[in-house]
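*** Fold description ***
***
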Amino acid sequence: MSKTPQKKQQLKKKSLSKKKSFLRRILVKSLVLFFTLLAVGVAYLDYTVRDRFEGKRWKLPALVYARPLELYAGLHITRQQLNEELSLLGYKQAPVPDEQGSYCWSNQSIDLTTRDFNFGSGLRPGIPITLTFSGNTIKELYRRDTDALVPIYRLDPVLIGGIYPDKNEDRILIKLDEVPAMVTNALITVEDRRFYSHHGIDLWGISRAIINMASGGPIQGGSTITQQLVKNFYLTSERTMQRKVIEIIMALLLEAHYSKDEILESYLNEVYLGQDGNRAIHGFGLASHFYFNKTVSQLDLHEATLLVGLLKGPSYYNPRSRTQRAKQRRDLVLKEMEEAGDISWSERQLAQKQPLGVLNRPVRGTTSFPAFMEVLQEQLHQDYRDEDLRSQGLKVFTTLDPLVQQTAEKSLQLRLQQLEYDRDLEQDSLQGAVVITSSQNAEIQAVVGGRNPRFEGFNRALNTERPIGSLIKPVVFLSALSQFDNFSLATMLDDRPLVVKQKGSADWIPNNFDQQSHGNVLLHDALVNSYNIATVRLGLDIGPGRVIEQLEQLGVNRRVPVYPASLLGANTLSPLEVTQMYQTFASGGFRTPLKAIREILDYSGKPLQRYPLEVEQTLNSDAVYLVTTALQDVVSQGTAKTMKNFLSTDLGIAGKTGTTDNFRDSWFAGFTENRVAVVWIGRDDNQSTGLTGASGAMTVWGEMMAQLNPQPLTLAEPDRIEYHWIDRPTGKLSGSECKDAIYLPFISGSAPTEQAACGPKSQPSAIRSWLKRIFQ
């Protein structure tokens, strides 16, 4: 039976009703799901906003400082050196140096006003001081405001770099109450005039962004300071509708939780304001130092408006490279401030007449001294995690002396160029490395990793491992002289041809550099003249293993293979390791680990860790004294005697040349009373340089040290040392002169029973060095 039209209509309505009910349920569920997801998303964004904003907002780099220059009466420092130090510090010349960080020369005196600095013992305020000079020596130091003499004064240390977070972001955090009103007024006037009235978003700006998007243009404009902070602080810089929506929600949440002042303070610390090489400049605190060498509280109106103007495009308006464009942008900010009533017409006119006033300085990047920084980081990583160094805002006070560093860099560069020119070598074919330390405390004063010292690449001072050649010989002779019952400087050594039998390999036949044998020679003369055959015979007598043990006691902390060729320096070491060896010689046998750190402060300026001097006597001081006197003779009369072309022989320099097979490596290691220095010259492809230790590395050493005020080396004579005249094997007498006699030190009881046939048998200690020069 067919259904009636009425029933069909009823069934249709019922079916339609069911469909509507189903759709309503689907819609309700969808809306519930949508708002649930929205609520979850907003809750997540809310958590993200609060977690980042209330926690540690920024990863702050560890700031690394050089040693502070100590000024005192009697300090030897040239006008050029002091100017270089002040330039590195960013001090400015001024007719009247009343501002902190300014100075002015007048004939033989300099007036300067120093800067505040926290050395860890509290804030040291800057003061006005005057230095008077007598030649290249400070004669007097006094305060200009009180005329009181100052016995010693430490300048603030040079900031030499940092250990930065990812992306190399750098900033100096500031508080809002440190920021002058003109800075915040300029910022709000130019970036967000309704900042204090909106709730995180500007509806007019959003409308403009939507219109741009609808017309096919990019989404831009309308961002408030809060939105810009959200974008910089939490989001990427991509321009999509999804990111814009998230940005708006997070801006509203940020305003709901935090005050306008908190948001503004964070913005002032976050914004990107320029680039220094590979270091990103963030925040007004750092930008004030980077462009003007001032704190943000010291900014003048024309400086503040320039920084605000840079927000639109730090690269496009770079005041160092695009001066006119930056000035036009600054003047526009001044115009808008006048129109907003923040400044008067006369203030605007005065500010517009001012030059940009930014510091002229080279791009430094994360550091100007990458080779030293690499050595420093190796030492820091012994006590600190990399994450702590990149985020905790530590202040690291190092041992680097910028004046010594710059001298070493220039000497190496110029001498390598000269060597290439003189010997018709390919340009830039030679490379080199330099390490300089303090003789007294093993502080590393300079590290040069190559002829381009700003290149953050391969650090030859730390990572080049080359055969050290004759630099090993003092270790061989020290090993022998430590057995003073068997050896002395007057012991006769055989320098006639030698064949060394080796199991499993070919015979080894060492030769002297001059391809001559010298018969019987004094042990002293074998070292002074660097005789290879005599050295090998001596080393085989005492045992190569004993020599390698002595090398470890000198401070080399690696396993060094033991074989006969080790006696002539076939083993490889880095220039830094060689410096550690000669540091122990310079300290009289007391091993002091080389150090690059003096002290570390936390972010608040409180001392965190100090690095005191570590000293351990590992060598026989009597034997070290004997070797050192022979090393002095190496310089005065031996393989390094051409050092006299650079430095006076009266300095008593102790040193040793080193040359490896086929002239691949040229070395010189030496020390004065105040410094130890090691120089290596070679080629990265390990080909021949054609240079000996004396013709290559020693020339860099001499030229460099001549500029560093070397102090005469005075050796403390141990109690058991006594001096005697000794005839050389071929000694001949002519009248009353002892032409072939030599005056040598001995450990008590070790001197030969037969001494020189003429000349005094002993000498008072006070006139010993004078007589030594007369008779030698």
Remarks:
- Residues 5-54 form the longest helix (50 residues).
